[in-house]
Protein: SDR family oxidoreductase
Amino acid sequence: MHVLITGAAGMIGRKLTARLVADGRLGDRPLDRLTLADVVAPTPPEDGPSTEVVAADLTRPGAAEELLESRPDVVVHLAAVVSGEAEADFDKGYAVNLDGTRALLDAVRTAHLADGWTPRFVLTSSIAVYGAPLPNPIPEDFQQTPLTSYGTQKAIGELLLADFSRRGFLDGVGVRLPTICIRPGRPNKAASGFFSSILREPLVGQEAVLPVPESVRHWHASPRSAVEFLVRAAVLDTALVGPRRTLSMPGLSATVGEQLDALRRIAGERAVRLVRHKPDEKIMAIVETWAAALDATRAERLGFVAETSFDEIIRVHVEDELGGVLPS
Amino acid sequence: MHVLITGAAGMIGRKLTARLVADGRLGDRPLDRLTLADVVAPTPPEDGPSTEVVAADLTRPGAAEELLESRPDVVVHLAAVVSGEAEADFDKGYAVNLDGTRALLDAVRTAHLADGWTPRFVLTSSIAVYGAPLPNPIPEDFQQTPLTSYGTQKAIGELLLADFSRRGFLDGVGVRLPTICIRPGRPNKAASGFFSSILREPLVGQEAVLPVPESVRHWHASPRSAVEFLVRAAVLDTALVGPRRTLSMPGLSATVGEQLDALRRIAGERAVRLVRHKPDEKIMAIVETWAAALDATRAERLGFVAETSFDEIIRVHVEDELGGVLPS
Structure:
């Protein structure tokens, strides 16, 4: 099994790579080859199968075609400009999230027409495809009227994935990810960044800024769950998915207050006191257009599973990022 | 008031032009200029305001920018490859319906950023944005999971229109048109063509082919109503529309059998006998993914109105296309 990951240097890309290497297989087939692509060449894993790392900018004409020359069995397309950046930089967001995705899909089609290659294509979408006012939970048959350019670009990706799958150029599965929490590492430009930092920083004794009220409710899953979603999407029997190729992933619906309650239970009041309330209307304006919860029944029936408490989400972070122990 | 119409040589484009010239105004402002664009330069109206006709292929780099140099107050974007052709010719459909529309939107944005120009932008969408299985009627908050490339391209157009409007580059209104019935003139490549030909041809004593069962239910409005929708969309107070910029237009839900009953009432059994049943699985496969009826409550509240019987739709055709009399 040969897997290509775009955006492989990103947080999810690195975790997916590690997971695949650790498993040594994908579904019931051994993993014998990895291609890891990103704008800057990703670091190859120390062990594992034959791995090629590629510096590829999908917005450059010809880049997608080159990347697909080795005809991977599975393409996991993670490369994207995050929501905050896509909102701040209109041109970059459309270039990467729309044109880059389309270039990759078009290059798959060109290859398919040339030699019949029909890879599994896993596309990451987002709850940002939905825009307020929203029902809670959002049924999967709800309209996609995003209120950010990022959400618009992701919704277009879902439409293209379905049409290219229907045409038989590729075998697509879209995963509509919850907000990933707790994101490890440094904050990125995602407007949703605070959902992670209000837990991640206090867990290691550092301050964090909360730009929205504690009553804000949102839809979360851990990085570990996100990786599990992608692995499952890569091997799923798409006959069970049908023409509506993107699935709302399961998640945990929680308020910021409930996040902080879980932090208190796990790391004590001292940790919670490190969260500084500093309202930011710009972030609030984006976040309030987002989903509080999605109906993920279809994905759940297909075996996708997420965390059921924020205590669990914090514990996953402690296990995967902090070596299983909290700093004293 | 300066109005630019793309696809102005098409059926709706010509009717919209004639209507604007006849009114001599749009809303409460006099019509003092028209720009009519199509792949082949449209025929200018005999009377009316200052009119420029332009041969413009929006898929050619720079074409959209040139077309917008005169900064029209209203852009009505009708140019499109129809459903059957977009399904048969993947590249052409995406080039015209997606890239052409995006080029026009991007050119508006470039001009807006240069000098603040913010035109009303009327985009035609279609019931083809919805794909089976579908509720009847389709609520306006229903997901868009089209099952044709045409529907995919129109759904993407709706998403872009909303994002460009939200960004303030233009003031967009999308009209999700029913199937236009009775289309005058010769059949085109639309898979929906038979809905018109089974009435149009028999009304003038000619045979027509019906490729689907009489039980097929569909969603219709006359060309006259379609033009009225566009005129209303061009002057609508968009503060009343909000961020969900595309409106499902009202229409008439009727079966093919009900169409033929109306034909019988107006033109007699002899006319109905001219309809030859010749099942075509390829057309049926496309048509059965389409809508039987849409909930158009939001548009109706904003004053959009369509026909309420097929007798009325046939009478509109007789008045507008046959000089008000049936050939004996």
Remarks:
- Chain B has a mean pLDDT of 96.
- Residues 90-115 of chain B form the longest helix (26 residues).
- Chain B touches chain A through 22 residues (CB under 8 Å).
- Residues 286 and 301 of chain B are 31 Å apart (CA to CA).
